[in-house]
Each structure stands twice: as C-alpha cells, then as structure tokens.
Amino acid sequence: MVIELIVRISSGIPGLDELMGDGGGSFVDNTVTLIYGPPKVGKSIFSYQFAYEGLRNDEPCLYISTDYGLKDMERNIANFGWNLDEYIDNETFYLIDAISTIAGVEVESKPNYFLASVHNPTDIMVKLGMAIRQITSKASRFRSVLDSLTTLMAFNDEVLIVRVFTVYIMRIKESGGTAIVTYTEGSASCKVENMLKAIVDNIIHLDGENLTIEAMIGGGKIKAHYDITREGIIVD
Amino acid sequence: MKRTYIPKLDDILGGGIIDNASVMFSAVPGVDYEAFGYQMLNGRLRDGDKGFVFTNVAEPETIIYEFRSYGWNLEKFLEDNRAFFVDGTSPFMGLPSDAKYSIEDYSQVEEAILEAIEDVPDGIGVINNLSTLIDYLGEDETINIIKKWNLHGKKYNTSLVYLFTKWDYNFDLVQNLKKSMDCVVEIKTIEERVIIGQGFMVAHSSWSKPSDTMVLFFVVQPGGVKVYIPKILVTGPYNAGKSTFVKKISKRSVSVDRKALSAFPTTIALDIGHLEYKGFIADVFGTPGQERFDLLLDVLGRESVGAFIIVDSTAPQTFARAKEMIRKAKAEAIPKVLVANKQDLPGALSPEEIREKMKLGEDIPIIPAIVTEGKGVTDALEALLGLLYGD
C-alpha cells in the first residue's frame, strides 16, 4: 500500500492553521484557493499574509496585482510592519504589475518585476510563463497570488477571464505552485461566480466578521470569527 | 507576393504571403506572439506600404512604446500618415483618444475596420486581439464580421493579420476561424512542467503547400522574432552507445575521443552533431558517461529543449546511474525519450522491463534500438519530435 503524504502549507494567518489542521498548515500543497467576499473585508490583507509567510520561509512568491503597483503594495504591506524590500532585492518576490502602465507610472525594470496591463490577458499569461520559468529554476515549491479577478473582469469580458483563470490554474499547478485568488462577491453574474467556484480546489468566504471555509481538500466546513488588526488578520 | 519579415516564415510559405492574404497567428496562452503582427507591420511600413493597428488590449501609447522596445519607430510612420490606430482600448478606460478611429462601443468595430481597410489599399492591417473581440461580440457575430473584413481586404488588396490567443474555445469555433483565413500559423510551446521553448508552424496556406516543420524562436528587445537552432541532449551511462547514437542521428558529427589509451575509444568531452529531419533542425550534444564530467550535464541540460537517454539494455546495474544523469542534466524538466540500446545482445531487457526497473512514468517513450545498425534511431527521433510538437 502506498501512503501519500499530504503536504500542507501555512497560511500566515494566526489561528487559521490551528483551526484547520492541528497547526500543521492550512492549504494542501499545489492547490488553488478562492478567497471571496464583499469589498473591504480583508481579502487583499489575507493575500499579503499568505505571500509574506512564504517569503519568510524562503518560498518564492509570484504575485499578480491588478489594483496596486509595486510602490502601493510596499506601503500597504509596511502598514502591518512587514518589509517587502528584502524579498524584492533577493529576487524571491516576483510581481506582475497589471495596473501601473494604465496609471502611467514610470517604474525601473528588474528581473523579478513585470509590467502588464489588465486589458491584455494574453500578455499577463506571457509574463506569468516567464516568471514561473525563473522561479522553478531555483525552487521546487512556490506561492502565487492573483489579486483580484474582479478587476480583470471589470476590464474584460467575464467569460474571457474565466478562460484566463483556467489557464492560470493549469500553469500554477503544473509547475508546483500553491495559489490563492481573490474575488469580490457579486461583481460577476451568478453563472460566472459558480464557474469560478467550480474550477478551484478550496473556497474561503470572508464577510468582515467570520471566515468560512466552504470547501477544502482534506477538510470539512469550518466557520470562525476573525479580526483585522495592526498585525493583519487574526482568527479566534 | 509580400514578405512577412518573420525569419524562415517566408521560406516555409513559398516566398511570402499573397498581397491580399488574411493571416491568423493562433497561439496557446503563454506564448509571446504579439511581436509577429508588429514585426510584419513594421517591415511593410518600412518598405513604403500603409498600415493600421486595431487594438483592444493596450492604448496606442503602449503599443508605440512596445515598437520602440523592439527598435522600430512607429511614431515616424504615424507622423507621415502612413500608419494609424483603430483604438478600441482608450475609450473603455475613460481616456481620451487621438487615434484616427476610436471605438466607443463594440457595435462600431465592424464599420471602423472596413473604413480602415479602405484607407490602406495594398497595405496591411493588424488586429490585436481577435480573442477579446470574440468574447465581446459572440462567436457567430465575430465569424461574420471577419468574413466581411477579409472580403473587403481582398477588394482593396490589403493584408489582414489577426492575433488570436487560443483560450479554451470550443473546437468548432476554432475550426471556423481557421476556415475563414487564407493562412494560419500555429504558435506552440514546448513544455515539461514549465514552458521551455516556443515554436511556430504553418497549419495551412491557400497559395502554397507548406511543410509541417516547427521553427523554434524567441522574442528579443530590441530585434523582435528571432529563430534559433535548438540543442538536443544525448546522455546516459558509460558505454551505452551515446557517441554512436549521435553519429547515426546526425548529418555530420565530430567527437572528441581519447583513442590512445584504450582499445575502446571513449568520449572525454563532447560529441557534437547537426540534425536535420523533416525540416526540423537541431544541434545534438552527446555527453561523456563518466561521473567526473557531470559538471557538463548541468550546463548542457539547461539549454536543451529535448533529450535522449541511452541505456545498455543488458546492463540493469547502470540504470541507477542513468536516472542520476537525468537528474543532473535537469532533464526531468525537458521532454525526453529513453533509447533501450543493444537489443540484439543476449540478456537484453525489453522496454517494459526497463520501465519497471527504472520506475519511469508512461509519459516517457522507451524505444528499443540497435544503434550500431541504425535500428530504432529514427523511431526515437520521431518519438521526441512527437513530444516537442505536442500532438
């Protein structure tokens, strides 16, 4: 008999790993998790914590940002007392910045920093491929964040973004990554929302008070209270 | 005939494209292929033709910037009124547009492009991106509009170039799109977990019988689309028959042998060969089998797009070494074929037995061979090309 060892990776959210799996990590390695909920309930903060937890443990992170450019992200993250600079410099933090070109911001080019446009999913996928190739040449495991699907849908046809998302998931999984993806509840049609839920492995809902694990590989439904503090999200 | 300005493509197409051709570049997501359309446009403009870009993926400013990064000066052609934009991006972002045509609503796109075609008789129009158009207009509507544009292109002797990203559309739609075009160029990836190479091949052309050859390319800034000759790695334990394999597979080869000290010459540096098969061109590098040369494996493996692993089927004690060499050559991450050599010798294990002993997945083809007699060499090559071409 072959016993497959399920590797779980830490969420970076205090309290969540304990809640989900005896403190041994939250997300099953090489899966994709949808984080969704109304606006301003902490989806991006959740993403920062997930990414930062990996970086602190030498796991590279490939971040696709559609709402904040590099400078904004650094500032947002610094608000919680975390420092991205070190990981930008040592090239473990990879950013595909899909908003700065639109905002007309001039940015210096770095090997781990890619400019793309929310309008051009084809180009985002090209940059994704380039970044994955670099990352997998130095690490067998990495994290990825796509924040957010909602913005991509605002600039493109929803169905196109479902197609793009399918390719994103395929690329991340093939190359050994574990991803979380954010989406603002109700911003797409019901049909599209169901499609999104159907193609991910795990689903977490945030509503500003409670965090509900609606679906999770190797786990059941769990609901717990959370707070957004100066140290980020903390689950009771 | 007009040139495409894409290296090798004109040769494959029999000299270039017919003047009023409709050409679709159809790419799997993740391939850098926008440059194909822009390179054609730039070449035609430079040779005195007129042209336009329809964009629904980036504002004109961004596209001018992209041209500049390739080393091409689109601004000059815009100033000379030899090139213009049909801007389907800026109005959707609430930005002002000073393009000759700007699309505020997708219902205007059909008419705007028909007019644009009339503006560039004998010239070229680039549509970037067809996929985005499909998702806005719907499948049937898009096919209808494309047919009208292509007819109009025929009338005004204008070449139309479509950039199409093949997301998971249904088969019929893709077939219908292809049927609406004079020429389809498929842009593919070579992948093994991650994309390690990209290549183009002509799927069909109405004016010529193109060969089904994949040309490997990369996109450089400045420069645009450049083709390159890929490396194929031949590796395996000592005395498995690597040098002979390189010789048999190549049109010409050299070997750096040490003959003096031994009755059995052995490769102490490299076997280098050049392979041409059904239009596919590659340089072949055979590595030495001895462990003290393992450093080379890493270097060669990193630059290769495919590998042959040669094993002596009568020597299962060397299989562990073969697996070690796969790992050291980073060949886990490139498409590979295992060549089970010396099948004519007593005690040779069958491919199935070797797969079992080496614990290889079904995705790695194992080809029985007697390399000294050339048996199995072509099969092995066919198997590797099958993996590289992905179908």
UniProtKB/TrEMBL annotation, chain A:
Pfam families: ATPase. Keywords: ATP-binding, Nucleotide-binding. Transmembrane segments: none annotated. Gene3D superfamilies: P-loop containing nucleotide triphosphate hydrolases. InterPro entries: KaiC-like_dom, KaiC_dom, P-loop_NTPase. The keyword Signal does not apply. The keyword ATP-binding applies. Residues 7-236 form the KaiC domain. This is ATPase.
